[in-house]
Write a structure and sequence with these properties.
The chain is an alpha+beta fold. The chain has one domain: TonB (TolA/TonB C-terminal domain, 2-Layer Sandwich), CATH 3.30.2420. It is 25% helix and 27% strand. A hairpin with a 5-residue loop joins β1 and β2.
């Protein structure tokens, strides 16, 4: 960390995001969205699942603080973590229109692979 002041300002910025992020985004449509890549896993055919992620859209329209709410993989749960990692990697590339204040949003990503 460079200086104590910069650490403090970063903490203050995080705190201010959490205060303003209590508002839920309404009808926010990304101006840039990237679909998640199906993870490279052995025997993927027949495995499907979904991931729900909550995140904050900051005042610049960038995605911050992504948090996996649920990750499901069927017929077994062993691919839930790779699905979650792929969903977060994709979501981190999304962007929205700049806003006056930050807000909370969520997104569901569905993973399916057929023969």
């Amino acid at each position: 960390m460079r200086k104590l002041v910069s650490c403090f300002s970063s903490l203050l910025m995080l705190f201010s995001y959490s205060v303003y992020a209590r508002e839920f985004c309404e009808d926010e449509v990304p101006i840039k969205s990237v679909p998640p890549a199906y993870p490279r896993i052995e025997s993927p055919v027949g495995h499907s699942g979904y991931v729900v992620i909550e995140f904050i859209i900051d005042y610049k329209g960038e995605v911050t603080s992504p948090k996996v709410v649920v990750a499901v993989s069927e017929p077994t749960g062993r691919f839930a973590e790779p699905f979650a990692e792929a969903a977060i990697a994709a979501l981190n590339q999304w962007s929205y229109e700049p806003r006056q204040i930050a807000c909370e949003s969520s997104q569901k990503f569905v993973f399916e692979l057929t023969e």
